[in-house]
Amino acid sequence: MKTIVDYRLSGKRVIIRSDLNVPIENGEITDDTRIRESVETIKLAVNASSKVIILSHLGRVKTEEDKQTNSLRPVAVRLSELLGEPVKFIPYTKGDEVENAVAAMENYDVIMLENTRFEDLEGNRESGNDPELGRYWASLGDIFINDAFGTLHRAHASNVGISKHLPSGIGLLVKKELDVLQEALEKPRRPFIVILGGAKVADKLGVVENLAKVADKIFIGGGMCFTFLKALGYNVGASIVDESKIELCKKIYEEHKDKIILPNDIMVGSSLTPMASIRVASISDIRPNDIGADIGVRTIDNLRNVLTGAGTILWNGPIGVFELENFNTGTRRLLDYLSASNGRVILGGGDTAAAAARFGYKDKFYHISTGGGATLELLEGKELPGLAALSK
User: Fold this and answer.
1) Residue 350: active-site member
2) pLDDT digits over 4-53, tens only?
3) 358 catalytic residue (yes or no)
4) Annotated catalytic residue: which of 2, 73, 190, 200?
């Protein structure tokens, strides 16, 4: 598969699909990590005297009102600051204004089109990979570079659609993501310890089965652990459980019980609120109205022992409701342990990355992925449509 460095870019119109889907509140970007991670590829193209056209989505756009809060304009401003180059923002996704701006570009110029998902208001043309839209965007450029790791698991017009019509390749960010994750899957430093959390057990069962082939131990925490615990006969009170996956969790545990580690105590609360009454309960002493919201102190200590001396540690999914102070102890202590580890620590994007940023650990690890869903599907062994399209 080609990368951006395999192309001669000088004088070419280079379409770069970036993942600039950053949180914005009241018009202000609250975390610019994805913009920062995208800069290297964009700067390489600019320095090669090309004409750079940036595409990205931002949030979900289902109504006309969504356009007001999901414009890429503030992202273009921040990108310009990080690049040290002007980024001209075009507040349209297609039409005369876009075509005129592209026609007027000179070498070293950078423009950014409006949020690609604005096209979803016309029959999900972007997320439905409308062939005409993909062909239109491709007509604006000479080379297509996909540097949006976070959308590789989606077949959209702005990635798969464009790649059908132009010489294509991956950017430096996507290459780094793939190199790190594939090394962990194929040649990890051992012991290889996996930590899985998050609320939806259904999203992670394929990951458990696939990683059990290579990992030495897999710790299961977060909301997903309660379906496993119930499958093993424990009363989990009012904790989140996917009843439809109980038998499958039991089967997976029995097949891999030499590798799977479950919590032995839980921080439970009367509700998932800052004012909830809380206590630490053994997994055999959870009451009917208890809601499991974090791992307990014995589990934390046990997990620390498991992690000691690990060569590779891969963590995907929060192990507690870290947004609430009364339920963030497990997450904070785990981040503290991992920041001091001599092993290669990889955080799998999404809420895990958000937790690291929230508690001041954003720059403490070997790698923090920019893509939650894409990371999960890669770990599960699934084909990523955005990547497969480039291979073809």
Assistant:
1) yes
2) 999 999 999 999 999 999 999 988 999 999 999 999 999 999 999 999 99
3) no
4) 200
